[in-house]
């Protein structure tokens, strides 16, 4: 997986997808890091692809992480 824009590539975020999620602690840390970096971004608009998401206040931050096995 490549590092997201504005996030420097490090050994920590460079790994090959195996179809399995990292440990729950690692996933929690990555989500917390993403929130810290992007949670206050108000420069974008909500996606219009899914009408339910288009109606969500843009001040909210959410993510759902699911493995290819269906583990949430």
Record the SSE blueprint.
Elements: H1 24-38, H2 51-54
Structure, explained:
The chain has helices spanning 24-38, 51-54. It has 72 residues and is mainly alpha-helical. It has one domain (22-72). The longest helix is centred in the middle third of the chain and has 15 residues, at 24-38. It is globular, with a radius of gyration of 14 Å. The mean pLDDT is 77.
Notable traits:
72 residues, mainly alpha, 26% helix
Summarize, please.
The protein is built from two helices and no strands. The chain has helices spanning 24-38, 51-54.
- The number of domains: 1
Radius of gyration: 14 Å
Major β-sheet annotation? none
Sequence of secondary-structure elements: HH
Distance between the termini: 19 Å
User: Would you count the extended β strands for me?
Assistant: 0
Which blocks of ≥5 consecutive residues have pLDDT under 50?
none
Net shape: globular
């Amino acid at each position: 997986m490549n590092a997201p824009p504005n996030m420097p590539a490090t050994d920590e975020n460079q790994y090959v997808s195996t179809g399995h999620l990292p440990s729950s602690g690692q996933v929690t840390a990555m989500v917390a890091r993403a929130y810290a970096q992007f949670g206050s971004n108000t420069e974008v608009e909500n996606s219009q692809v899914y009408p339910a998401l288009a109606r969500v206040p843009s001040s909210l931050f959410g993510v759902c992480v699911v493995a290819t096995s269906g583990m949430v």
